[in-house]
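Subject: for your reference before the review

Hello V.,

The reviewers asked for a structural picture of the protein, and I figured it would be easier to keep everything in one thread rather than splitting it across files. Below is the amino acid sequence we used in the manuscript, unchanged from the supplementary table.
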Amino acid sequence: MQRRNEDMQNNKVLLTKTVRANNLLLQKPWLSDLLLILLWMAMWRVSGLMEYAPHASIWFPPAGLSFAAFLLIGPRALPAIMICAVASTFGENIIYKTGYGWLELLRSGVLFGTAHCLSYWFGASLVNLFIRRSGRHELPQVILAFLLIGPLTALLATFCGTQALQLGGIVTESSVNNIWLAWWIGDLIGIVVLTPLFIGAISRIYPRSGAWLSEMGLRQPDVENYGYVMKLVLSALLLILAMTATAQFHHQETVFSVFFLCIPQMWIVYTESPLRGAISLALLSTLTAIGIKILGLNDHALVYQFAINVLAASTYFGLTVPVLVSHNVRLREMALEDGLTKAASRSHFFEQGEHELQRARHYRQPISLVVFDIDHFKNINDRFGHTVGDNALLAVVTAVKQQLRQADMLGRFGGDEFMLLLPGNNLQESMQTAERIRLTLMQLTLHGTISGLAGSFGVVEIGSDETLMAAFERADRRLLEAKRTGRNKVAVSA
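And here is what came back from the structure prediction:
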């Protein structure tokens, strides 16, 4: 109990700190922009450590950060990212000692920043438009738009960025032909691997940013961490083994063993939360980039880049599978069951009832139908509210099911009207079942508000050449007869 109280207190402290931080960011929007600039520049420096050729990095995290920023805050991100683009251009000059003048660097930085910002703004706007047009903010739709538009956006940014550097005199036309593919793949990896995580970061830096997109089904449930950590360790060891073998044996074929990493990654995706799947993808991709640098696998960099992209695409499509399965199960439940009472839906009742009717005729057995409703149900809703009315329906279904056999079927026609199909019961037996249910309803009590319910019943035995719908109409007429003659009674029809 003491430990639980401590956890609750810690959660309250964390929530208080989070609220205070959000309030500070809301009161000082420039602080959010500053944090975005610092994060972008940090990611740019990380990408510089992974360069294997001028302007060609194993991956380029700032691409994912820019894409995420424009997804969530749109044009608001333009000034901050433009500042970063210009600053990184000057930074490249310092690192590589190119000797360009500050005016040339400023012009090149503005050209590069314009190309970078407009490309990712355009791509992010297309994703948002795709999702809005579909009218769905669910994970499968978001991932589909992301994987379709993200690579094309990276390609557009590559073309515009290389042209901007060429116009600024930073690179020559021949250099563009040599670096554009590596540039594109690096940006593409930065987008597909890190955008979901950057979305989470930006939604905290800008508390009022696109809340629906920041969710994307990527929340981590409160589950044990040990199993997840062990899966990550196993995946990392397999990756290190594959890359070490490539560096040691120098066989061209060995490098392709990295694609087997899809197996443990899919294990994580299908057994852990979506957030953990995205985190494992980011960690494995980071480890791949570091391994290329440390082990001197630059000659195989392009293969590893494609492997990371395949891993990312497999991960995101894998994330949609549990969601789609859940949706399909839910749709099936909605088709078979009434949403409130969990009795059979009207369509399922009649569909299944036809099969039962054919079976009864094949074995020459009787089969009966009962239609009933709750007397004065509208008064219950009007007097006590619809919540009490719903509780009354639930109580009725529970009570009725206790009076039925396993072979009997209960369905809800609509409102407070229900149907019973009683295979093997003749008219007399079905009338007795209806009478037992009527007496049971009179003994129900709902939270001290309602004491006793009344029900009217229409009972028919289905004829040898009668359809289920015709039998229903006949039973429904008996139900109306019971209501006209005083309610709370059972009316039968031979």
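For the response letter, the relevant points are probably these. The radius of gyration is 33 Å. The domain at 13-216 is CATH 1.10.1760 (Arp2/3 complex 21 kDa subunit ARPC3).

Happy to draft the paragraph if you're swamped.

O.
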